[in-house]
From TrEMBL:
Matches recorded under Pfam families: L_HMGIC_fpl
Annotated membrane topology: Multi-pass membrane protein
Record lineage: Eukaryota, Metazoa, Chordata, Craniata, Vertebrata
Positions of transmembrane segments: 21-45, 102-122, 134-153, 181-203
Key word Transmembrane present: yes
Alphabetic keyword roster: Membrane, Transmembrane, Transmembrane helix
Source organism of the structure: Oncorhynchus tshawytscha (Chinook salmon)
InterPro entries assigned: LHFPL
GO BP field: sensory perception of sound
GO annotations of cellular component type: plasma membrane
UniProt-annotated location(s): Membrane
Protein name: LHFPL tetraspan subfamily member 4b
Superkingdom field: Eukaryota
Amino acid sequence: MAMTPHTAEVARLYQTEFIRSARAVGVLWAVCTLCFAIIEVVILIQPSWVGTREVHYQGGGPVPKTGTLGLFEVCVESDWPVPECRGSLSTLTPLPAFQSPAVLVCMSLTMVWSSVGCLSLFRFCNAATVYKICAWLQLTAGFCLALACVLFPDSWDCADMRDLCGDGVTSFSSGNCSVHWAFVLALLGVLDAAILATLAFVLGNRQDALLPEDTKDGEKSTIYYNTHNALCNIFCYCY
């Protein structure tokens, strides 16, 4: 059934608003995905998952150590301006007690950067398909990161933690230490992954639903082509 001139005009206006909204939300989602990938790198390499609390030394015993601990390094304050660190990310060997959390964070990092790489598929594939692929990758990344955040405090009962935080350390009890900003950032990363995955699923499912039922296939293709080009141009410029 042919559209009346009034209906065709309304459909064109609707498509224009859809393209603008899809571009804005899609670009915002893509930028947040890239930021999340960078945050994952910081979470992995920073030795600031746990740190010693401020203690007032009163004498009469050994001076308590002060420092921080991460998945790959233990850094203890010394007389030098730079902390004395044991372990290194360059060897890709995490601390023995934290091997499982480190592997899970690495898996999460791989999934997130894979979703960033999938953004280039907007030039070749259907936008809804790309959004859903990225959503599943981000959902898996969030699950791995959440599991790492659970296993990390469960692994506190180890020699490295007792050496830094005292003999009162047990699983889920950090003794003289407390969680630091890298661990808090990992927890926020789990929430970020859930939000980005949900938004990607919504964007993927709404690609067809937001269009008028009587829109022609050729007009749909134009909308997808324009949306793809907007995202691809931005990321080609960034890279």
